[in-house]
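To the team - iron/sulfur cluster complex, inputs and output below.
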Amino acid sequence: MNPREEKAAEVYARLTAAYGTPDWRPQFEPVDELILTILSANTNDRNSLAAFETLKARFDGDWDAVRNAPLAEIKDAIRVAGMYNQKAPRIVESLEKLCQEVGKYSLDHLAGMPVDEALNYLQSFPGVGHKTASIVLLFCFRKPTFPVDTHIQRQSQRLGISRAKASPLEVKREWETLLPDADYYSLHLNLIRHGREVCDARAPRCDECVLRSLCEYAKNPPNA
Ligand code: SF4
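Output:
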């Protein structure tokens, strides 16, 4: 192991010791996960889930009914997630794409697809970037791709796993180079939890942090 791999392994080990290894729990069918992650852009989990549940309830879980509904009805159902003027047409376009290309509202054909091909395919959907695509593939299909959200980007930069201004895509590639595939799911969830509970964007609680001795930010805080 080189020093960077050792550091990544230590981050993994300390977060696992602090938070445990999360169980594999695919919460949603792949198409549901796709729609939920489209709804999750620029909002929190509570609001995106509320919008998703309202959408499903309003249309009795029938994606065909959503695809054929007036946009105003969809916007009204997902209003709590914000950006509904953009998200409603993205949802309809995604359902239309599935209908035309797959003939049904299913992403099951991704199960046998190589991970890079599956990532490219999902990113051809409107508004779907590598984070959303990776979440669908990792959570629903257990494919080895590491989703990077703002919590993970921020902590990776602070820790020095990636460079200080690294993009989410660079951070994704760093972790995928440094860690075994089997660690992605657990590290993804534990880093998000750590970002919410300890490594806050504005006020990180470095004194309580299990990663402190590994962290470049803690060694050289910006306002020291
Ligand atoms: S030491 Fe501070 S900046 Fe570094 S990971 Fe922990 S909370 Fe974040």
